[in-house]
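Journal club prep — side note

Before the paper discussion, L.F. wants everyone to see what a predicted structure for a comparable chain looks like in token form. Sequence:
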Amino acid sequence: MFMQLTHGVTRALEVCIALCLAAMGVLVFGNVVLRYGFNSGIAFSEEISRLLFVWLVFLGSILASREHAHLGVDSLVKRLPHAARQACVLVSGTLMILMCGLLFWGSLKQAQINLDNTMPVSGIPYASLYGAGMAAALGLIVSIFYNIFQALVHGEQAENMVMVQHTDDLIQGAMADMDSTPTPHGGKAP
């Protein structure tokens, strides 16, 4: 059941990110066309695009944490014995949770300060920008707890101990997928 919930939340994040990106594209492109083609424009386009971009980045950080797509160095951790690897995951996870707590607290304080300040054109409170930081902090804390749990309980699996995606592996996987994809004529892709 937890895995279904995790996949559902991951899918919801992907959809939200895609919607933010699509709305940003429509607003910015539409504003450019209206400004240069018709000497007009969408007044709130810049503010809404900025707000959507902030939310896109922070939601993307949660998704990247879930998929282990953040930058990382695993050269030392790969050489350590199993117990030391688990200790590294526990220590680094604890430090990241503390940093996420600071992000949440700082974002909350800024949201409280800016609750009455609104964006000039759209009237949206500036606190909505800092709400993205709070949402990201909570999502990252959940993701990091899950990563720690996986490393401590299912540490025998290498992907639960070294939480880094290698670009070479991703490229080779994509190449293998391309080689196994059938073409419309019944053969394999070149």
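L.F.'s comment for the group: Residues 2-163 form one domain. Keep this in mind when we get to the figures.
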